[in-house]
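User: quick one, fold this
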Amino acid sequence: MVNFETMSINSGLDKLIIKGIILIISLFFAIFYPDVLTVFFTCKILFFRVYHILWLLTILILIKRLIPQLNSKINLGKIYGRNYLPAGEDNPSKQKKLRDYIKKMNFGAIRSAIYWTMLVLMMGFWHVVGLLNTMWLCIIVVFFIFMDQFCITVWCPFKTIIQHKCCNTCRINNWGYLMAFSPLIYAPSFWTYSILILSIVTIVQWEYLYHRFPERFYALYNANLMCKNCVKKCRKRS
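Assistant:
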C-alpha cells in the first residue's frame, strides 16, 4: 500500500532542500563572486536569456493559479466552486460562527499586510541609501521563496497571526507570490513589474471570491477543508 502521508511530507522536504541549496549557492556567489551571477542570468540560450526563461516560468505559474481547471490543490483552489463541498445543513448558529470566522480572518489578514508593507518599505529605505542593490533585492526574493516552502513544510508564523490550522484553510495563501516578489518594486523593468502586476491580479481574484463566497474558506462549511476529507494526507501541526 502506498503511504500518501509519507510521500506528501517527503515531497515537501525535497522542495525545501532544493530551494535551500539554490539559496545557499545564490548567497555564496552574491557575496564572493557577484559578477558570476550577472553572467549567469544574462547568459543566452538560443534566442533567450536565463532571466527570460525564469520570467516565463513564473508568469505561467501565476496564470495557472487564475484558471480553475488548472488549480486543483485545495489550499489555492478553494476559492473555486468546483472545490467546494457543502458540509451539513445551514442554520443561524452556523451563520454566526461564519461571521465570527470572517472577522477573525480579516483581522489577521490586515495585520499580516501591515507587517509585510512595513518590511517592504524598510527594504526600500535600505535600497535608497545604497545598502541593497538590485542583485541583493533578487537574493531577498530567493530567500522569500525558500521561506514560503519553509512555512509549508516546517512552521508558519502566519498561523499565529491569522490563527488558521493549516495551508488548506489559510486566509492569505494566494498572497505568497506578491509577498515574495514585492522587493522587485524597487527594480523597475518590464520583467519585474509584469510579475508584480500579475501577482496583484491573482490577489484581486482571490479577495473578490473570498468576500463573495467566504464559506469556501471555512471547514465548518466546506467539507473539503476538513482533515478527515483532506486528500493531501499531510502531517497535522498545531
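User: anything notable?
Assistant: The chain has one domain: 4-229.
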